[in-house]
Structure to design on (204 residues):
């Protein structure tokens, strides 16, 4: 990560953190009153092929201690009413401003993968994770809705894993590597703008 990109991340994470603090307080209160504790969901993700961190989101599902793997149709019954709205608008990801400030993530980059996929596809993620993971990215922007459609019919964790590994991981990686070859602050701003526009559109 270049110094310019890191300074960009810190400045806008602080700015957005201050501006959106009232929104985050409202969301935290809604989750607490409607769904109870915990308010936040923590998940191990990989920053590099060797280094893990705890990604933070607002909780959008009922608690299941045995939960693992990516979300497919087999987990839809666990999405709360509040969680459905937060996922649709990506407001569940606001706590990741803290991950950005800590240096775990950037605003833009590949979505941070689970350890099991990094270990399963080491050569692929050795290339993808040359960039710090991001809250959004080219793959998120282009492939997010299609990924959801692919995983929606999966009714078991095994089916979800098979579809994700076979049909999602390679396509997302190709997009992440396109971003890697064209990385710039201007490109980051374009991706962030399109992500925000998509989220705002889904509010109405």
């Amino acid at each position: 990560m270049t110094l310019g990109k890191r300074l960009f991340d810190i400045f806008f994470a602080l700015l957005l953190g201050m501006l959106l603090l009232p929104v985050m307080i409202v969301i935290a209160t809604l989750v607490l009153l409607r769904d109870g504790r915990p308010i936040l969901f923590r998940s191990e993700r990989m920053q590099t092929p060797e280094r893990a961190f705890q990604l933070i989101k607002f909780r959008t599902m009922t608690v299941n201690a045995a939960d693992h793997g990516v979300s497919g149709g087999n987990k839809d019954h666990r999405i709360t009413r509040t969680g459905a709205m937060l996922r649709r608008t990506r407001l569940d990801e606001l706590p990741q401003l803290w991950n950005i400030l800590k240096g775990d993530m950037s605003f833009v980059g590949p979505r941070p993968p689970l350890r099991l996929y990094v270990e399963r596809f080491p050569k692929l993620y050795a290339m993808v994770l040359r960039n710090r993971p991001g809250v959004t990215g080219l793959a998120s922007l282009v492939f997010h809705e299609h990924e959801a459609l692919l995983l929606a019919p999966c009714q078991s964790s095994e089916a979800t894993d098979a579809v994700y590994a076979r049909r999602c991981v390679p396509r997302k990686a190709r997009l992440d590597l396109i971003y890697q070859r064209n990385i710039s602050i201007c490109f980051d701003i374009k991706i962030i703008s399109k992500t925000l526009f998509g989220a705002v559109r889904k509010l109405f």
Remarks:
- The CA atoms of residues 109 and 133 lie 5 Å apart.
